[in-house]
Amino acid sequence: MHRFFYLHTNASTPRVGTSNRLFTECGTSGFLPFPNSTCERHLIDRAGRSSSGVHHVPDKANEQTEFDCIVVGAGISGLLAATVMTRAGARTCVLDKGRGVGGRMATRRRDRAVFDHGAQFFTARDERFLLWVDDWQELGLVEPWYDSPHSGVHYRGVPGMTGVAKYLAGELDVRTESTVTRVSYHEQGKRWHIESADSTILTSALLVLTAPVPQSLALLKAGNFVTPERELEELKSIGYHRCIAALAVLDASSALTECNGALKLRGGPVQWIGDNYRKGVSPAVPSVTIHSTPAFTEENWDVDDSVRLPKLLEAATPYVQANVVSCHGHRWGFSSPIGRFSSDAYIDPERGLAIAGDGLAGGRVEGAAISGLTAASELAGGGNHA
Which fold has domain 107-120+240-337? Predict the structure, then answer.
């Protein structure tokens, strides 16, 4: 079943470069397609499927440099923002310094085992996010992992947490291993200039920054962009916990039978153990992901893995009750935000700027998603950037 949604805006001033056509062809009379358009070329449902069932993938061979919207960060926040803008008709590009997409919705292979080593699950309470999750379930991209009487259904990605991100990226112009070093706004021309470490310069009318807030602010500062003092101080107050992940391959299935292999702990060095085998992420080889508490992380951030990982394994042994075959570490410098912004995204409509991500909207995967969706919809309905 195809479901379409619209965002009310002022039709007299189309917002994004190619969106002029959407207003005239659709005759929407004051509605900008959100997150899809029902125009002839844009009959795409929210799951990225056209009316003919074809998944739309852009031609990435022709790498242009001028866009209607550029998104920095290919986590769930950035990918959803880019998806909304793309489906509304905006020429959109996503830049990320990493080798892959997903941000902390990350999955990796080690020693034939598979690990979700960042975000372990997500919940969905907000109707705006639930609509997307419903489609992802229909497509087999997510499924319930376990249920909690306090926080409801906990979903996992299929085959891993990065699955949704890879699916969304397939519809977009995503350029990985692109380290943005500075963003600057040029009043003459009303364009953003996005500069990368390889000296590439892209330009756009709209800019969405979804990297961790300190990194986004650093990019703006490097470009001498002046953020209003009150909002700047609020953004600067958002901090992040760090986390150390131990990725352990086991010789047998763990003893984590409750909640299908999910265990939250209080006190001690470990705050989370997730059984990737019971979860369905590592069906061939048993493995667990162990996350450290903030206190342990700060005490051991610069300590060698050969010292800190055994401490995490020792603390997890009573719950895992299996022998460790091998173990690898990973450090998350921006694991979970401390505090949040006063709204779901920072928006500067006059300059076409949005700052989004989990640091602004509550710290969960759902918060990051809502922040990205908010950023895209607010910019699409903002000042005249045609």
Answer: Polyamine Oxidase; Chain A, domain 2 (3.90.660)
Q: Which residues contact 84 (CB under 8 A, 6 or more apart)?
A: 34, 35, 372, 373, 376, 377, 380
Q: What is the pTM of this model?
A: 0.84
- 6-102+166-238+339-380 and 107-120+240-337: identical CATH topology: no
Quick one: 192 exposed, middle or buried, by C-beta within 10 A (0-12, 13-18, 19+)?
A: buried
Secondary structure element (H or E) that encloses residue 256, with its range: none
pLDDT digit string, tens, across residues 269-280: 999 999 999 999
Q: Is the per-residue pLDDT at 147 higher than 60?
A: yes
Helices (H), 68-121: 76-87
User: Is 154 in contact with 262 (CB distance < 8 Å)?
Assistant: yes
Report which residue type is found at 356.
Answer: A
Distance CA 331, CA 309 (A): 11
* Radius of gyration, CA atoms only, the chain: 21
- Taking Cα atoms as reference points, which of 25, 33, 22 lies closest to residue 381? 33
Is the model's pLDDT at 6 over the cut of 60? no
Alpha-carbon distance of 241 to 143, in angstroms, equals 28
CA distances (Å), origin 11, targets 30, 83, 91, 345: 4, 21, 19, 24
Contact 91, 18 (CB under 8 A): yes
State the pLDDT at residue 104: 96
- pLDDT score, position 380: 85
CATH architecture of the domain 6-102+166-238+339-380 equals 3-Layer(bba) Sandwich (3.50)
Burial grade of 72 (CB within 10 A; 0-12, 13-18, 19 or more): buried
Instruction: Show the beta-strand stretches assigned E in the chain.
Output: 6-8, 31-33, 66-72, 92-95, 107-110, 113-116, 142-148, 152-157, 173-175, 180-186, 191-196, 201-209, 239-250, 262-264, 270-275, 287-292, 324-338, 346-348, 353-355
Q: CA–CA separation, 148 vs 111, rounded Å?
A: 32
d(CA 125, CA 367): 10
